[in-house]
Amino acid sequence: MKKSLIVVIVIVALLAFIGMAIGSSYNELVTLKEDVDTQYSNVDVQLERRADLIPNLVNTVKGYVKHEEETIEKVTSARENLLKANTVDEKSEANEELTNAINALMVIVENYPDLKANENFINLQDELAGTENRISTSRHDYNEAVKAYNTKTQKFPSNIVAGIFHFEKATYFEVEESKKENPTVDFS
């Protein structure tokens, strides 16, 4: 009778330990997933802020540069694509498109000294630069959250819990390969 009682107690203790380990892993995965979602939301907020600044920038430039409609239309179109994007991959692609369009717009602005000196334009450019820094920080924070979450979903024994409860791998917010190259600066 004593041996069977000890066996039952050991089995119950073992099941309780396994249940606690599963619960702990599950709770940690939920916390990490929520952190990923929060950081993604932060990136989204900064991208929206950037998109909200674009119409003001475009209208300011339009007043000076009436014959550069194609570039202005590209900026407007890229902004719309960013606002329509839903997934991390779509937002990343739309963000790169908008970055390219804004860079093209800034090249045009260089040809208009009066525009570059305009107070409204300077303020918008400062706001945009600050927003770009916030986007960069938000993307970094998001990718760090994804790293922590993905690492947890792949480590033993939490990978078993992740598989049972369908915790899917999160997607990093990445930059196109062409954007990773150093820019060429030529003063000739």
Q: Tags for this entry?
A:
about 190 residues; mainly alpha; de novo design (two linked rop proteins); 6 helices
Describe it.
The chain contains 6 helices and no strands. The chain has 188 residues and is mainly α. The chain has a single domain, classed as de novo design (two linked rop proteins) (Up-down Bundle). Helix 1 packs antiparallel against helix 2 and helix 2 packs antiparallel against helix 3. The longest helix has 63 residues. The protein starts with a helix and ends in a 24-residue tail after the last helix.
Tally of strands: 0
Task: Report the principal-axis shape.
Answer: rod-shaped
CATH secondary-structure class: Mainly Alpha
The helix content, as a percent range, equals over 70%
Provide the CATH architecture. Answer: Up-down Bundle
What summary fits the major beta sheet?
none
- How confident is the prediction overall: mean pLDDT? 85
The count of domains is 1
Share in β-strands: under 5%
- Helix segment count? 6
Cα distance spanning the termini: 94 Å
CATH homologous superfamily descriptor: LemA-like domain
- Round the Cα radius of gyration to an integer and report it: 25 Å
Given helix and strand content, the structural type is: mainly alpha
